[in-house]
Amino acid sequence: MASTQKQKKAAPARAKVRPAGFPTRQQVMDFITESDTPVGKREIAKAFGLKGQEKIALKALLKDMADEGLLDIGPARAFHKMGGVPKVTVLRIVDVDDTTLIATPERWEAEGQPAPRIRVVERGKRGALTIGDRILARTEEAGKGWLAHPMKKLAKATEMLLGVVEEMADGKLWLRPVDKRIRKDTPISDIGTAKKGDLVLAEPTGRPPRISARVTDILGDPFAPRSFSLIAIHKHGIPHVFPEAVEEEAVTASKLPLHEDKREDLRHLPIVAIDPVDARDHDDAVWAAPDEDPANEGGYKAIVAIADVSYYVRPGSALDREARKRGNSVYFPDLVVPMLPHQLSSDMCSLRAGQDRAAMACHLVIDAQGKVKSFRFSRAIIRVAAVLAYENAQAAIDGEQDNDLLEPALKPLWACWALLRKAREKRDPLALDLPERRVVLDEWGKIVSVAVRERLDAHMLIEDYMIAANVAAAKALEAKKAPVMYRVHETPGRDKLVALKEYLATFDIDFALGQVIRPSTFNQLIKKVGESEEKEQIMTQILRSQTQAYYAPQNMGHFGLALGSYAHFTSPIRRYADLLVHRALVRAYDLELPAPRDKAIPDRSSLSQEDYENMGRVGEMISGHERRAMEAERETIDRYVAAFLSAHVGEVVKARITGVQNFGFFATVEGLGGDGLVPVSTLGAEHFFFDEAGKALQGVESGDRYTVGQRLELRLAEADPINGALRFELPDNPAPRGSPLKRDRTRPKIHRGRPTNIRHIGSSRGKHKKR
Fold first, then answer.
1. How many CB atoms neighbour CB 43 within 10 A?
2. Cα–Cα distance, 615 to 324 (Å, whole number)
């Protein structure tokens, strides 16, 4: 459909215009693919009757489509449907092959041809790319495949939308987002077979500001059991289905012989596993007894036995690649997304009572002052005497419950722990005893209650044994100059310490910035506060001043635990970092076992050269996966809390302010959690100052002050289980300034920008700090 007619040149436009009736991308694609002759911009314009500024808009559209990989430009400026990969294109990272990221074109329209898997070549640090990220990349053919060289990381603006289908009074359908940070619904242009109330995945279509949603997947009833977890899984792109090859390899690996004759036999010892009552797997068990060596009078011997996961999950295997992709298990109230298939995570690698299990044993010798005098590691075979819940172990020690293992196992464990606790107190690690929420579900998956987990001596006992073993693992590898995947927690940065100083000053508490900052520095602050009402809020602010822990092969110490060398060793079922530490120990201390007869399983279980060379990259990846899991778990608990509170809307509840911004303050229900907003526009008609340093809002006329940590009664105005959002208002509900808050026709809308009744004061007047 080539044309030889000359087109009049259009005047340049001041802005891009997308006229009514303008062809859609699909219409342009259909025209190009159905044409028997080369098609250029002029042919497309003629076919759709475009003139003037419409041609300029067409040029912009074609450029966009070319940039996105829908079109390619051939000889004589003719467009054709992309069959190869453009030189520069938008890619989405979809997989990890060992440590190499795999991407595919964000849009792939070549019928009958699978989207190519393109290996991403990273040079230097470009922002720790991970699965789900979008990049603009330069591509090139290499052998039989393609390589991509990232040019820049793109915003996730075109990600799939996750939400619930809602029908308005006028019959129009809208997608209500599950992310409470998204405060705008999206009109649905194509609902497919979904129905009102369905939880769906949708693809954004169109161009701003006219974005609509096309439903691609139906996930079901958002209020059905496990749906809250599924929302988090889909929102964060958490891999939750194991490939068939990985499942098959797990079955094969689980049948490997234990090699009892090659392992240290510890089955005669009354080793016990102490875990949460709802634990799905058991990867650690402990034993202790008085040391019979006269040179260590008053000291103890202890064993921390950890599931020998490295024996089953070997470098280069399908299991290994999948475990690295996941990075860690993710624990929701109603389900677990495991790092390893169930044949391993909850069967052969789970230390079940009365069953022989392969273990990596950390042998500790502890002196009377609680110092670890020596340690060694061995591959062992154990038989756990019992799996006890924390509460049951504590009840046995307290004399409230009979237990046959009290004398042979529990009392020696507690006596040895008394020594470890001495050393801990001398070390004085950061002591922030903040409450942890636990969602209790019934057998149908419905929420029964949200309770604060009780902190028992049994919890601290296991924690201290695990810390001792983790330190021993790091030092054992350092002694051999072997690679270590450290757990790093750096000293707080100056900016956060300055903010903490300003905050503490509002309580008339001095905090000197010139001093050497240690964990004990913060502990002394907490002691100063005593048991006052402000204690919890001050501990929360101290926690916010800390840096985020991460994994790296370079040792920067662990500030919070006051330790110079620290690595994670005790949970290889659920953390990939621990698995690498196990492999490093096998390699450094020559703990390799005979190669499997099944050639489908790699020969060696020790740290591979590839593991060693990619420690830095893997550390970045699994640190990102850990943050992803934490956010998903927290959001899911928020949704359960909102579901629980939805039956109490309109009631007055006891709450505590957790954060203050210039647009209002956030509060949480005492004992339950879940943050909700009290918009400043609902606080009355007077003006409020935002005191940034004191983290408070203060009324100009009344003097009413709302500050972080303050306890007050609020009325629950809204509880949205879909996105976990709560909204509160004052019990007397003063008339807000201006029009009432409304959101998307049915819910409150949070207006952007600073409310009109706010004045800002802070440490730097006129400056707005990013948080």
1. 19
2. 12
For helices 615-645 and 576-588, the axis angle rounded to 10 degrees is 150
The neighbour count for residue 538, using CB atoms within 10 Å, is 23
Tell how strand 210-220 and strand 186-190 pair up. parallel
- Report the DSSP beta bridge partners of residue 758: 688
Place of tokens 């290996």: 119
- 161-167 and 264-265 strand pairing: unpaired
pLDDT by 10-residue block (mean), the chain, 771 residues: 40 41 80 69 84 83 75 57 64 78 74 75 67 81 82 68 87 86 84 88 79 85 80 87 93 95 96 89 95 95 98 95 94 91 94 96 97 97 96 95 95 97 93 79 77 87 97 98 97 90 84 89 87 78 91 96 96 97 98 92 94 90 92 89 88 89 88 84 84 84 85 90 88 52 36 40 36 38
Could you tell me if 83 and 110 are in contact, meaning their C-beta atoms sit under 8 angstroms apart? Answer: yes
Q: Which amino acid is at 391?
A: E
Number of Cβ within a 10 Å radius of residue 189:
16
Distance of alpha carbon 576 from alpha carbon 584, whole angstroms:
13
Short-list 709, 690, 710, CA closest to 699: 690
- Among residues 380, 329, 377, 389, which one has the least CA distance to residue 353? 389
Query: 663, 651, 666, 664: which is closest to 731 by C-alpha?
Result: 651
Q: How far apart are CA 457 and CA 413, in angstroms?
A: 12
C-alpha triplet 81, 83, 88: angle, nearest 5°: 90
- Which are the contacts of 199, defined by CB distance < 8 A and separation ≥ 6? 162, 163, 164, 178, 218, 219, 220, 221, 222, 227, 230, 231
Estimate the crossing angle of helix 411-427 against helix 457-479, to 10 degrees: 70
8 A C-beta contact, residue 384 and residue 357: yes
Alpha-carbon dihedral 507, 511, 513, 519, rounded to 10 degrees: -120
Q: How far apart are CA 102 and CA 408, in angstroms?
A: 53
Beta-bridge mates of residue 148: 120, 139
**CA-CA distance, 402 to 422, in Å (whole number)?**
28
Measured CA to CA, the distance from residue 568 to residue 591 in angstroms comes to 19
What tokens were used for 142? Answer: 């290499």
The pTM score is 0.76
